[in-house]
Amino acid sequence: MQVTVSPTQVKGTVTAPASKSAMQRACAAALLKGGKTVLQNPGVSNDDEAALDIITQLGANVQRVNDTVVIESNGVAPISNEINCGESGLSARMFTSIAALSKTPITINGKGSLVKRPFDFFTEVLPQLGVDVKSNNGLLPLHISGPLQPKNIEVDGSLSSQFLTGLLFAYSAAGANDVTISVKNLSSKPYIDLTLKVISDFGLSKPVNNNYQSFNFSDQPINQSTAQPLNYSVEGDWSGGAFLLVAGAVAGDIVVKGLNVFSTQADKAVLQALMQSEATISIEESQIHIRKSKLKPFHFNAVDCPDLFPPLVALAAYCEGTSVIEGVHRLTHKESNRALTLQEEFGKMGIEIGFQDDLMLIKGGEGVKGAAVHSRHDHRIAMACAVAALGAEGDVTIEEAEAVNKSYLKFWNDLARLNATIYSLEKSL
Ligand SMILES: O=C(O)C1=C[C@@H](OP(=O)(O)O)[C@@H](O)[C@H](O)C1
Ligand SMILES: C=C(OP(=O)(O)O)C(=O)O
């Protein structure tokens, strides 16, 4: 799908979508907890659908009922020998360790960008836990044969936190007791806070976090009551919400609802960058009001919140001077190599992006040009280009704009509802 965004001032009120990070974790937790779980505000993105399909293959019964998702489970009891994780890195990395709890041999597969993303972690780690693993030279598909047995182990957390998220769920569900996962160089730390929060919200046994260097399971396995259904409300998404907030800061006067300011989500840190750039923003518990004003360049460390690079590059394009974002090394293995895609696609809009070691330098404040850009099938690149287009000097046409469906199915509709002038060849928005 090709979408053209014409320069427009956005206005009105919008509600952020459900967080796919929270939704996918809730699916895992509902499968592991057993009994009945009712998810309120469930996600509808492609990654959310992938997680629902995976837990179905792993034995859960899943139904969308009105605006909720009802999950019934007896724990991990696969009905198939394969799970397909679509394009979701989190689902593939989290559910591999969870699927390994069963003794049924299972193939972990994916599609699109996911089949190019690294999975060597499992060939190194899972055999130490009694799981037989074969990979396609470190890539998907993986063939695993469990059951996983929790043991003291040391893992490397520098590439991604998602592998650790999976191990934490699996150890918790396997009743790990007096067992420690030691972690070197953990990246994306707040995502582990979110994992631990969901583990505890679902009453699963939660390890003690020793400064992100080790996670010790010392609880006796909890005998959870599954008699009562658990009602769980999925948080709004700070990662998708960041694009809406930047849209308001560069070209609007909007109110964003549905973002919990007390969330543990990594991308809540977008507020720090917006405040540093002196955006006109008022933050209340139930809504954030943000409008266009003169913006100053900012310096932001995104090592622990790498998904903020794309929206912050769009923000930086409108800040008067050079903004600096730290953590470029975290971008290589996402849906695209995001450092290069941002440089190339924003370059087409006249925004100069340079690199110095781990820093990205974005020269802003000199105008954004109309251009034809490409999402590279990366949802966050499509959304960043769209938001940057709102204050551009001409139309920006985005190829493969449907990439947004990975995390934010209604992105184009929400932008249109905020009065953005958007035109699509495929369908009216
Ligand atoms: O756990 C999660 O929900 C995620 C963790 C992050 O990945 P890394 O841990 O690989 O940085 C993030 O980039 C991804 O979009 C979602
Ligand atoms: C990298 C992302 O997700 P995942 O790793 O779960 O595919 C993302 O949403 O930007």
TrEMBL record:
GO terms for biological process: amino acid biosynthetic process; aromatic amino acid family biosynthetic process; chorismate biosynthetic process. One of its GO terms (cellular component) is cytoplasm. The active site is at D307. 3-phosphoshikimate binds at K20, S21, R25, S160, S161, Q162, S188, D307, K334. It catalyses: 3-phosphoshikimate + phosphoenolpyruvate = 5-O-(1-carboxyvinyl)-3-phosphoshikimate + phosphate. GO terms for molecular function: 3-phosphoshikimate 1-carboxyvinyltransferase activity. Pathway: Metabolic intermediate biosynthesis; chorismate biosynthesis; chorismate from D-erythrose 4-phosphate and phosphoenolpyruvate: step 6/7. Belongs to the EPSP synthase family. Monomer. Catalyzes the transfer of the enolpyruvyl moiety of phosphoenolpyruvate (PEP) to the 5-hydroxyl of shikimate-3-phosphate (S3P) to produce enolpyruvyl shikimate-3-phosphate and inorganic phosphate. This is 3-phosphoshikimate 1-carboxyvinyltransferase. The gene is aroA.
